[in-house]
Specification:
By secondary structure, the chain is an alpha+beta fold. Helices cover about 25% and strands about 35% of the residues. The strands form two sheets. Strands 4-5-6-9-8-7 form a six-stranded antiparallel beta barrel. A three-stranded parallel β-sheet has the order 1-2-3. Strand 4 and strand 5 form a beta hairpin.
Amino acid sequence: SLLFKALDNVDEIAPDVVCLSARDFPRHWKFFARYLASPVVQPHPQVILLTGSLFSDEDADQAGTLGITRIIDEAALIAGEYGSLDNFLEDGIGDTGDFGHTACMFIDPAGGGLVTGEVESRTRTSLRFQPDQVPPGYFPLGSIISDASIKTSGEVVSAQFQVAAVDSALELRLC
């Protein structure tokens, strides 16, 4: 298989980034990701997982434990739906009202796991985020969250944030 040939050459190539397709390799991407996170591979590359419509919440949880750096929907990527951060924030001016379902995910800067949750509100310079898995107090003030992915109904954008306030949720300000 092409995937196993690539696996065999990882040491020689020493890639900075590896893109895996969960759609093309639904059973093997986990094995490959686990191998890339093992002590055998040094330094560890960033791993981007391309997903399809059959990618489940359970798969997303497993991706977080396997060191996946970013999850991207292949169909949205091909269709050019990964939009700009400016467009995303422009929609949120005023930070009130219904702006639709908005999810956010990023890699925990301290523990390295995948953090997911809902965006409660947003302005041009910040957003209010409620994480699913960890209490908001887990993230110290001033923590930098690099490469957060924010998904609305038709758009995915990336940004870097700093934890600006912690109460029942996190206030994340653009860096």
